[in-house]
Amino acid sequence: MFCIAKLINISKIFPQSNVAVLEKFNLDIGYNESIAIMGASGSGKTTLLSILGLLDSPNQGQYFLHDKEILQLSHQHKAKIRNTMFGFVFQSHLLIPHYTCLENCALPLYYRGLVPREAHEKAESVLSALGLQELSKRLPHQLSGGQQQRVSIARAMVTKPQILLADEPTSALDTATKEEVLDLLFTLAEERKFSLVMVTHDQTVANRCSRIIQLNKQVLC
Amino acid sequence: MLIFWLKDAFSLFKYYRTRFIFSLVGIAVGVGAICALSAVKVVVNKNSEQLLQKYGSGRFVATIMPMSAKEQKLVEAKLSSHAVSQFCQDLLPNFQVVPYQLLNIKSTQNSKNLDAVTIATASDIFSLMQWRPIQGRVLHPLDKHDKVAMIGNQVAEKIRELSSAPEVIGKAISLGGHYFTVIGILEYVELNPLLDFDANQSIFIDLNLLNRFNANTILDSYIVEGVEQTIPESEAKFRDIIKNELGVQQVFFRDALVFQQLLFKQVMLTMKILTLVAAITLFLGILSILNLFIILIDERKKEIGLRLSLGATSSHITWQFLRESILLSSIGGISGIVFGQITAYIIVRKLEMTYYGEWKSWMVGFSCSLLVGIGAGIIPAKLAAKLHPVKLINS
Known about the structure:
In chain A, 36% of the residues lie in helices and 27% in strands. With 221 residues, chain A is an alpha/beta fold. In chain A, 47% of the residues are buried. Chain B is an alpha+beta fold and 395 residues long. In chain B, helix 1 packs across helix 10 (314-350) and helix 10 (314-350) packs antiparallel against helix 11. Classes of the chains: A alpha/beta (221), B alpha+beta (395).
């Protein structure tokens, strides 16, 4: 399978507690692959996701994206990669409270340098594709939890990412909404051909992925 | 893009409106005070410029005061009534000089007091001051040995009252026991703060008649019109001439610049209060924005983390916070400019001066608000940009 991202011997130690959350960890992310990352609390799931999304740096190891080592890149370059290659969906959906759904959805495009009108047009089309067009002018507090998560998925989709990183995207939702959101995520992954890396505690959610990675508990250095 | 930034900031202000309102009021009052201060200064300057133009921009009154016997001797030789005309002639063309002397003598008509000031002067005073007769004629150099007088219109009115006759020209008035014939009446002359007399209540006689009153025949006051660019330059040059020609060190000047000082003196207390208000409220405004944005960083940690995860760089975050701070202070600044102009208008009207809306004071106010925005926004902006995205998202 064509490999998009590759982690080699990644170690992450938190200096304050001297705890290694990841030790010589290896991972290949294939094209259009869905990976579930599971493990006990503190096993480094979110840390791994942060390293994959270039939000955090490991202490050791290499990270290849399209066969290019990217850990040594500048902050600005990493920000550009985050904007163009990755989509993020967080547990608490993280929508900016004073922005409308449309503006929240267009946010990554502002950082891509698009003029607001163009960014809004693109965001509008993604919201429409996800059946959320009637929510576009509403503020986040006017939406239900499921609607908020759908808007955050739309925001992740707007940049046409190659890898979508989702940190427990359904843990705050009820069962019915959870299924709907998961259906949406997997359908989009299939249609838009992006790889999905999802942190979850839920085995049924993990079972929907093509691969499950179990992280072990952290060890003291 | 600017419209987008404005909308972006407005949506934030709307969301946190109760917190922003205090900062806005602080900046508005501070900027308003600065703006009012600047506007009052401009108005005072403009009013004094008008006064300068009105009373002659290069004109001043000099009083020559000999302080020693040696100085007195030279002054007596050159500035006594029979010699002063030549002295004034010699100062041409650099200075047009008209001497005058206020006489402490009683002026009566039919033994009734006229309550007028008698002034011995050269006939040039009327052309220099552009005083025209309403009736009769003004003094002439040929009148130097004739006991004739030109009178102000209020003196003429008094004579009419006392004599119960409308005709004043040709009437005899007594000045210190000497009878003078009225040859002309001055038109109404606006009070000139440069002069130490009111022309409307004065009686003018030729300076050559000074010796008739056993008075001091030295002319000590001079209306001077210089050709130099500024009044101080003219005064300095005149002082040098007096020093070189007469050896007199002490020359006092009264000029239109005094009006400016007087006007500024009038508004000094107001300006001090405005400065104090501006300093305190702007300082509080800066602290308030600084504090507000530092608190907002804490509240908006997740938002900053989210922005970073979506591709924002630290400079994007710095600019985001700085932009919000500048826009907030600008809104406060614009409100302050309006508030300041209204305050300045009230102050100026109370001082009975003419109000001018002046863009310079608006610019001063707006620049201050921008500086407050940058000053108070830069620290929170830099703090926000330094934060770690993972810690922010998980906060």
